[in-house]
Amino acid sequence: MALRYRMLMRTCAFFSRPDAICFIVLVVQNVIIAPPMIHSLAAAMSNQLQNTSSLSTAGTWNLLDVRNSSPVRTAELRPLPVSPWDIALCVTGTLISCENAIVIAILFYTPTLRAPMFILIGSLAFADLLAGLGLILNFVFIYMLNKEFATLISVGLLIAAFSASVLNILAITVDRYLSLYNALTYHTERTVTFTYVVVVLIWLVCIILGLMPVLGWNCLRDEASCSICRPVTKNNAVVLAVTFLLVFALMMQLYLQICKIAFRHAQQIAVQHQFMAISTTKGVSTLSVILCTFAACWMPFAMYSIVADSSYPMIYTYATVLPATCNSVINPIIYAYRNPDIQKSLWLACCGCVPSNFSLRPRTSSDV
Questions:
Q1: pLDDT at position 348, please?
Q2: Inter-residue contact 148 to 213 (CB < 8 Å)
Q3: pLDDT of residue 274
Q4: CB 328 within 8 Å of CB 100
Q5: Burial class (CB in 10 A: 0-12, 13-18, 19+), 168
Q6: Of residues 138, 145, 139, 144, the one with CA closest to residue 213
Q7: Selecting from 3.40.50.2300, 1.10.287.1770, 3.30.56.70, 1.20.1070.10, what CATH number does the domain 81-351 have?
Q8: Ranges of the chain with pLDDT below 50
Q9: Can you tell me whether residue 216 is helix, strand or coil?
Q10: CA 15 to CA 32: how far, in whole Å?
């Protein structure tokens, strides 16, 4: 009887059937197996069923735990879609970098271009060059690194570069005004050393502004306080925008004074030199183009920075940022490539000669 019991249990274990089927077989054979043995078999099979159930349940939960504890998520494996706006900004940054690198190279390798005016033009070109490189780095950091510190570095670089660009334009405007207002004493008062001091002060202010997001003035820990340009806070964006509006108002006032002085000089010699009046009119038209271009590029972004925040659609931010960056594309054309001295150096660098119809005329009060 004991032998039959052991054989039956081995058969059930071999076929992995420790369930009620084996128990029914033993009940049918109750003539051979004693009732106490039946109770013992029932208890043994009950324990085995519980152990098997617990193992199966534990295996199921372990599988679920492994699935849930996986550190890699499916969404993180998907590549970040590239925005056409970001591509446009990256292309604009490349164009800015190429244009201003040429200007810097011409000024650096031409010893005669060391006057205060050319120092300011070189500082403007360097600021725009950094702005172009910042746009390229921002694209790389967004789609390749995607780290918070890298984002802070690129945003800080862009803030410092574009702030320096605007302040250098203001410095050039002041330099043009002083060259007309104090025409007799300008070359003795506005020395190269004084110009370098002004440039250094401009860059110190801009570097401080660029370091603010890196040093903690950002909205990475408080998304509700973000401006349209994350991670710049809303308050900092408003301060920068208001400062730009003040700079633009000062530029308008200075250019208005330049026009008045130019017209007064033209009237004094209009009887003897009629062409001066024509040249002055052309200069005023150029001033109008410069101011209108500067306003068209920066004014939408400045006003939008004041009224909007991070909850607004990103397409509006891109639509105002892109024209602002285009101002750095136009700056070399307005302030560098129009200058006869730079044009001569560019011809010599590219062709080794100067065209026969090219003439270096002296700069007058109407030249802008």
A1: 84
A2: no
A3: 52
A4: yes
A5: buried
A6: 138
A7: 1.20.1070.10
A8: 1-3, 5, 8, 13-21, 23-39, 41-42, 44-46, 48-77, 362-366
A9: coil
A10: 24
Q: What does 191-208 look like in DSSP terms, one character per residue?
A: -HHHHHHHHHHHHHHHHH
Provide the 10 A C-beta neighbour count for residue 63: 10
Do the Cβ atoms of 240 and 249 come closer than 8 Å? Answer: no
Q: Where are the domains of the chain?
A: 2-49, 81-351
The DSSP secondary structure of 320-331, one letter per residue, reads HHHHHHHHHHHH
The reported pLDDT for the residue numbered 2 is: 47
Residues 277-301 pLDDT 10s? 555 566 677 788 888 999 999 999 9
Classify residue 218 by its DSSP letter.
Answer: S
Alpha helices in the chain (DSSP H): 2-14, 20-28, 35-68, 74-77, 84-109, 116-140, 148-181, 186-189, 192-211, 234-268, 274-307, 314-332, 340-351
Q: Which residue has the tokens 């010893």?
A: 111
Q: Counting Cβ atoms within 10 Å, is residue 101 exposed (0-12), middle (13-18) or buried (19+)? A: middle
For the stretch 252-277, pLDDT in tens is 999 999 888 877 777 766 655 555 55
In angstroms, rounded to a whole number, what is the distance separating the alpha carbons of residues 225 and 266? 54
Q: Is the pTM of this model over 0.85?
A: no
Residue 193 contacts by C-beta under 8 Å, 6 or more apart in sequence?
none
